[in-house]
Amino acid sequence: MVSSHLVEALTSPTDALIELYNSQDPQTLNDFPTVVTEYFSNIFKNEDAFCEIPSLDLQRPPESHRDRSLVRFRAMIQDTSPSSEMYLSKLPSGKCGGWGLHTMEDINAKIDYSDLRDCAVVWAVSVPGESQWVREALDGEASDKVISHEPIQPHKYPLADERHIGVQLKFYTNLGNDAPKMNGILTFVGILTNESLHTESDISLDVPTLHVLFTRPYDFHVLPSLGSCAFSPEEVQKELVSWIAEEALGGDLDAAEWVLLTIIARVRSRTRSLNPPSLTLSHFPSPSRSSDSSTPTLCIILSLLLPTFVVLPLSLDLLNNVPFVPESTQEDLCSGPLQLSSGTTVLITESGVREGKLVERGVLNIMAVQDVMTSQSLSYKFPFSHFSFPTDIQFIVLSEGKKSAFLKTDITVPFEASRNSNLYKRKSMITLPPPEKLAAFRRLVLSAKTGKIEVGETTSERIQEDFVQERKTNKTLSSDDLKLSITTARLMGLTLLEKELTIQTWERSNALEERRKARLD
């Protein structure tokens, strides 16, 4: 039986809000925003009920929803710098205020200043680099009908020229420590309107505005398309590496395994600087005139596996003219290609860089990428200062030379493809695994990416023994080399979904590393 509260919340959220307000004890109205959050989140706590809420996305942009519709918007917080907005919690007429509930009569009427409250305002955008399979899993399959949408404030989206939704969010609860974090992904449920942009500048601009009722965390593990896995981790890992190698890397199994280890890495400890290792595939051929595409097939493969994935095709024009880091101009935070959510993998191509001069902007952009790779923090530029925000981004660089021309990565793997390999296939030319196997690949990647693995005493002793023995023949080995070796072994263990690193996996990881070093020679 469908709840009447559910039906009313879906069809007329404003009426539901007003009725809730009118049912409250006047003495407790100071806590009304908290009551609203609890009431609506409880109505939609069931997953089936939650999925009934219309989605705000590229298939269903703001123009396709009627005014004051209830919608859910999965988005990344792009800008938290706008100041709070004052609103009347109770209108002069005695009716509910906030959530866009006011008329011109209310604005012009005499007000009781004790009814003024603060409303937090932030700007949010469609999740940058979100893969199509994730959108379809969470929002339904894309329709053939495309509704035209001109993004408002496109400079606030990290990926220039890509279609997206930008929305002003208003929060009426006292967020405190629960305030949305910069670049965090959440699903926001609220009442959609079109209102003036809240800004301290003289700009007059109407923008899509979502009056937030409640939020939900974004959890990759609830993706419906993943399901349960009927295959063993070892089998799935082996087939996944083989598929990546055959379809995107000319049969190079070792390169494919290094790619897999890189994309499942994450920041393990900021205090101990245990950051995800970055990878360069060197000797990677540039596309030729006869190539089917200018984009490496690896990009398509990774977008089929990862929830969020971004390609950064370096060129002198891009480096010299596009700021890679967010910059605040006239109280407005302009985005840049590096403003991405945690867990995003970035593939950088260098084939588009031709002879020419790298100006100051280009040098700063390269330094910014290197800084994120090394320290996993991104410095935002404000008029009189810089402020760094933590990141958790994985990097793969494709370079035609012996190493990257611009960036120093933790690992360099000389690429060895078979002859006549097509590394620039179109998506239609890729051989996809059966749906259940592709779902198993995705599940393995996400489970490895979010998993934890311990190093037991026996394996730890073996690692120390091996390091001591190797130091006898190679005096240049450092603690950093040991740390990277352990990190690589941990990542390999995670791809096998191990809870504790085994000696067998340690040996297998060492063998992979030895083959990599042999290629360097």
UniProtKB/TrEMBL annotation:
InterPro entries registered for this protein in UniProt: MCM_complex-bd
Superkingdom as given in the UniProt entry: Eukaryota
CC annotations in GO: nucleus
Annotated GO MF terms: chromatin binding
Pfam families membership: MCM_bind
Keyword line: Nucleus
Annotated localization: Nucleus
Protein name stated in the entry: Mini-chromosome maintenance complex-binding protein
